[in-house]
Structure formats: structure tokens, C-alpha cells
Predict the 3D structure of the following.
Amino acid sequence: MPKLNRWWIAIAGVCLQMALGSAYAWSVFRIPLSREFGWSITQITWIFLISWFFLGSSTVVGGLWMKRKGPRVVAMTAGLLWGGGVFLSSFSAHRLWWLYVTYGVIGGIGLGMGYIVPITVLVKWFPDRRGLITGIAVAGFGAGALFSAPAAGWLILHVGLMPTFAYLGAAYALVAIASGAFMQNPPDGWTPRGWRPSAAQISQRCDRDYTLGEALGTWQWWAICFLMSINTMSGLSIVTQASPIFQEMGKATAATAAFLVGIMALGNGAGRIFWSWVSDLTTRKAAFFMMYLVEVALFWTYHSIHSLPLLAVITFILVMCYGGAYGITPAFAADYFGPRDVGSIFGLMMLPWAFAAVFGPLLFAYLRQINGNYTQALYLIAGTMTAALILPILIHPPLGRKDADEHPAGAALETEAEAIAPE
């Protein structure tokens, strides 16, 4: 494939993420599946949790495979698995186990393998905007449900439940495979024409590329992983319970709660861009600290809010913070361990994330069930995040990097090659 303008590659990456992020629309299928086949809400919810678990556990597979075959092959294969898994779900009538295998396992593997590709590719094409570009890319994942949810709802009404899986699976595969064909790494030694990192950027970056094994040997890898996982446990607990929270705490009707949940999806995407932009202006650790501080203040008081408009605003902000971690963390990993192997290094971070993504919402729902309210669960989240505030204060790049004054122009951190691809 000929050389492409890097912004076209970025657009393709967003389209790929939106096709994958359609998985966020799963709640559209919950009631129709329960009505048609008599499956319980718990049984249906497990389909989503299985797909999310395999998303997290297969991301590292995509990262490692990219090193051998390149991003295009991995992206197109992921699109086929995700779309194919959804398509095969159309044959799951009265067979819950088949839905677990197709949508959950096969589709989840496709999600994880594909999710890592645009992130890895774009941090290499945009060393000057690492935080912002990864935020934009993962915002596409968060915004996927904006299109797929209404499409799924319309199809269920007009063609039926099982055919909807077939139509959507074919569409997801088409968009993901077509977008994946544009995924390519920049040539070795490429940098944007005329760009040099600032002193602040230099002070927060390593001086070499780490291998996956070397990164795992540093406490910083585990600290970043913990930061993302804690944020996921906290934020996803709210995301998965947003509708009942609005109805129980804010006394909203079911229709109003559903509308507000759609608005929360915008917060999810907006937070990924906003906090990534903040991390480019400051540092990744500073952005994480500010994000955590906002969440701590809101979670300690969240249980006492009964005004629906105020509850909606506060929830929107919390969901923005939840999404923000997905925008910051890939750039964080690229800064601390170098962009060369960021696919496998960040990809492996998604494995403990997978456990956090399942454990957090389940614990939150369990505490709500046994207590009859959300107070204890919210206090637990607030206390955990308060303790975790120390991490972004203590974390720093792995030892071995050179100090900023040894790189007056930042040239040693980025190869001084003349740009060989257009902006």
C-alpha cells in the first residue's frame, strides 16, 4: 500500500474503533432476549461480561502478533472475528451456550485484537500528540454505540431479533476490515517534519524502547496497570448501573433514564479526548492525579444526591473520568517504555483490566442487592480511589532515562530523520 497522510490513517483508526465499540450497545438486546427465550437478566449480562473478559485477555495477543505480521493483518483478522462472532450469534435461538461462544468468546477475541491496533499505530504516527491522538482513537470505541444502538433497535422491530445479529455482524465486519486495511506503521526513523519534544515531554519519557519482558520487570508497568484497573472498577460500576441509579436515586422514569444513559455515552467519548488533551498539556501523571481527585470528591458525596439534573451532571463527569483513563494510559505506556513495543506492553495491561472490568460491576451490584441502596458500594469506591491517589504522585519514568538538560533540543529522544511522509 502506498504511503498515506497520517491523518487518513487516524480517521481509519477511529472508524475501526467505532465498529468494535458497537459492543457497548449490548443492553439493547437484553430485554428482547429475555422476552423471546425466557433467559434471566443475569444469564444475558454474562454474555457481555464474557466478551469484555476476552477483550482484555486477547489484547496482548494482538500486540504480539503485530510485531510479526504488522498491524494490517491483525486489524483485518480482528474485524472478521468480531463481525463473524456477531453474525454467528444469529443462530443462537434457544441456545444460550452458543451466544456465549459466538458473541462472547469469538467476538470478544476480535474486540481485543482489534482494539490495540489503532492505538499502537497512531502513537507512532503522532509522537507530537500522543495523548490527544490516542484519546481520539479510543473515543471512537466509546462512541460506537451511538450508531449501533439505534440501528439495532430499528432492526429488531423490523426484521426480528436473530436476523438483527446477522445484519449487524456483516456491517461490523465490513467496516472493520475496510478500516483495518489502512493500518500501517510509519517508516523506521520517521518523525513529523520540524517537531522536537519540549523539555516537559522529555522529562516524562524514557530514553530507549523497552521490550515486554523489560517493562514487566519495572514497578512502573504495574503501577500504570493498577491506575487503569482501579479507574475501570470504579467507573464501569457506574456505567453498568446508570439506568437504575437514575431511576432509584433521581426518581427518573424508565424512558428518561434510557435517554440519560445515551448522554452518558457522549461523556465516555468526550472524556477520552479531554483528559488526553490535558495529559499533553501537563503530564500523564498529573492528568491521572487530577482525574482521580475529581472522582474522589464526587464519589464521597454521590450517595446524597437526589436532584435528577444534578445527578445527571455528576454522573456525566464521572463517566468522562472513566473514559479518560483509556485515552491517557496508551500514551503513558509509550512515554515510559517507548513506542516500539507499546502494542504488547499496553496490551498486557488489559489482562488485569479484564478482571477489574468484571469484578467491579459485579461487586457493586451485589452490595446494592444486599443493602438496598448504593451507599456502601460508593463509599468503598471512594475509599479505594482515595488510597490510590498516592500512585500518580510517586510514579516516574523507569530508571535509565537521561535528564532533560542532557537533551537541550530533545533531539536524542526522537530520531532526527527528515519526515518522509506528509502531514
In short: The chain is about 75% helix and 0% strand. The chain has two domains: 1-186, 202-399.
